[in-house]
Amino acid sequence: MPAAKRLLVFFGMIASGKSYLAKACAGKWGCSYYNSDIVRKELAGLDLNSRQHIGYDTGIYNSEFSRRTYDALISRARQDLWKENNSCVILDASYQSSSERRRICSEFGRGFQLLFVHCCCPETVLKLRMELRLKDPSAVSDGRWQIYLQQKKRFEPPVEISSDQLLTLDTDRPLVELISLLEEKIGV
């Protein structure tokens, strides 16, 4: 497996800009792109734009269904990275626990260029993005302020990831600037 094969994992809190940035990078670099919200709703047989305004850790967001979702993300990334003509896969999910991130390292740490992109921004920006998302009929994410507050309590900082495999970005910056910082980090 050539080292040029690349897995980029965009992670962070709800509305941290990870999907916006990940999709832009996937489009620019021709990478396969897998988003946990989309995969989760596909697995549940739901319309992507259906709203699942349920409590934290319930319904399709309970731990069992989340496990299925994250397993599917790994499976899809693995399948695509083993294809001869595919050199890049982007995963987009909260990856809020160190155990989930360690699992990615275990699965893809050898033979691939692996980079975790930790997306963050000020809480005021997060809140505004969630309010705008609630009004957007094409939004796939079900993240809301109440869910964010619960997620914030459980989110584990990425201290287990080495600095050569981690890039933390403030997504309140212009997209072109964020992509440039990413390209510099991965050598594109």
Structural overview:
- Helix content is 46%, strand content 15%.
- By secondary structure, the chain is an alpha/beta fold.
- Helix 2 packs across helix 3.
- The longest helix has 20 residues, at 63-82.
Beta-strand portion reads 15-25%
**Name given to the CATH architecture:** 3-Layer(aba) Sandwich
| Uncertain runs | none
**Given the C-alpha coordinates, what overall shape results?**
globular
User: Helix/strand-derived class?
Assistant: alpha/beta
Q: What is the CATH homologous superfamily assignment?
A: P-loop containing nucleotide triphosphate hydrolases
Q: Any idea of the CATH topology?
A: Rossmann fold
Strand order of the largest sheet: 2-3-1-4-5
Using only C-alpha atoms, the radius of gyration works out to: 16 Å
CATH level 1 class label? Alpha Beta
SSE blueprint and pairings:
Layout: E1 6-12, H1 18-29, E2 32-35, H2 36-44, H3 63-82, E3 88-92, H4 98-108, E4 113-120, H5 123-134, H6 145-154, E5 166-170, H7 175-186
Parallel strand pairs: 1-3, 1-4, 2-3, 4-5
Helix pairs in contact: 2-3
Concise summary:
By secondary structure, this protein is of the alpha/beta class. The protein has helices at about 20-30, 35-45, 65-80, 100-110, 125-135, 145-155, 175-185, and strands at about 5-10, 30-35, 90, 115-120, 165-170. The longest helix has 20 residues, at about 65-80.
Which descriptors apply to this entry?
188 residues, alpha/beta, Rossmann fold, five-stranded parallel beta sheet, 7 helices, 46% helix, globular
